[in-house]
Amino acid sequence: MTIFVVSPMKTDDIIKVMNEHRSIRFFKPIQPDLQIIHNAIKIAQRAPTACSGQMYSFIIINDSKILLELSERVKSSVLKRAPLAIIGCADVYRLKELVSLADETLTMEPYTALLQATIDTSLAFQNLNLYLEAQGLGTCFIGSILSYSDEIIDLLKLPPLTLPIAGLAIGYPDENPPKRPRIATELIMHHNFYSQPTKAALIDAITYMSTLLEQEGYYKKYANKENYTWKDHLKSKFGGKWMKNIETHLKKSLQMQFKL
Ligand SMILES: Cc1cc2nc3c(=O)[nH]c(=O)nc-3n(C[C@H](O)[C@H](O)[C@H](O)COP(=O)(O)O)c2cc1C
Fold first, then answer.
1. Strand boundaries in the chain, DSSP class E
2. Which of 47, 113, 169, 241 has its CA 20 to 30 A from that of 132?
3. Does residue 140 have its Cβ closer than 6 Å to ligand 1?
4. Distance 38 CA to ligand 1 centre (A)
5. Of ligand 1's atoms, which has the minimum distance to the CA of residue 145?
6. Atom of ligand 1 nearest to the CA of 177
7. Does residue 95 lie within any of the structural domains?
């Protein structure tokens, strides 16, 4: 029996890149070499993909006028500061064309197609991101690409059955932030079945996240918010009206692109 072993050296390098990840939101005014970006997209394609459907498209935005227009439409200051961006799109359009060339019609329900394509796109996008980080580039995912997707579908000339899932702002880092905290691994790791978190563990998580982000001055630096904690962030992003407003846009895109 042949056993295939990955060399420990290479594994160490990959783990280091994953472990050192921090989102970068300030960039030097240097255009990244397009060849690095092309290589990253090739690496993205190595990610596993549901039924080999490869339901994604990546749009490189390196035209400064389009990048500016995009950043304004999705209200992203990080995107505005970046010299380059990639928009990751869930893409069922191309699959539909391929299936029709295989003399069949695409019979997936829109919600199945969208979920499968979102998984494919996310897995590939993080492969791409890790490659860029390994090349010394700084990146930040931009969720407002999805939130305001209805505003950019025409700008990017996206066909039906596609949805921009996220953007990635890319450039050489002009800041050196610390690693950001995560909640305790015990809260997200389960064995054999789901174990309910205790209230105390959840309160600890909020305190821990708030304390570490406060130490960095995170919300002051990136959102110009004083005395703002992770608890406030939970309230404002996942409760209240903020998400409701976003959902109005998203519903429009889902109707437009997937008839959902
Ligand atoms: C899907 C997704 C969307 C995101 N959208 C934004 C965004 O619009 N603006 C931003 O500044 N950061 C955005 N981020 C970055 C997160 O805020 C960041 O990953 C998180 O705070 C953890 O920090 P870290 O990446 O430095 O570890 C996004 C991340 C993901 C995965």
1. 56-61, 84-91, 138-142, 162-171
2. 113
3. yes
4. 23
5. 8
6. 26
7. yes
What CATH number does the domain containing 131 carry?
A: 3.40.109.10
Supply the pTM of this predicted model: 0.96
Q: Which of 148, 185, 191, 145 is nearest to 168 (CA)?
A: 145
Looking up tokens 């295989």 gives 102
Does a structural domain hold residue 60?
Answer: yes
Whether ligand 1 lies within 6 angstroms of the CB of 125 is answered as no
**Residue 237 corresponds to which tokens in the numbers above?**
């992003």
Pair 121, 165: CB distance under 8 Å: yes
Q: Is the CB of 143 under 6 A from ligand 1?
A: yes
Range of the domain at 55: 22-177
If one counts the domains in the chain, the total is 1
On whether residue 197 sits in a domain, the answer given is no
The tens digit of pLDDT for each residue in 169-211 reads 999 999 999 999 999 999 999 999 999 999 999 999 999 999 9
- For 220-258, how does the pLDDT look when each residue is reduced to its tens digit (9 = 90+)? 999 999 999 999 999 999 998 888 888 999 999 999 999
In a domain, 91, yes or no: yes
Residue 180 Cβ < 6 Å to ligand 1: yes
Name the DSSP letter for residue 27.
Answer: B
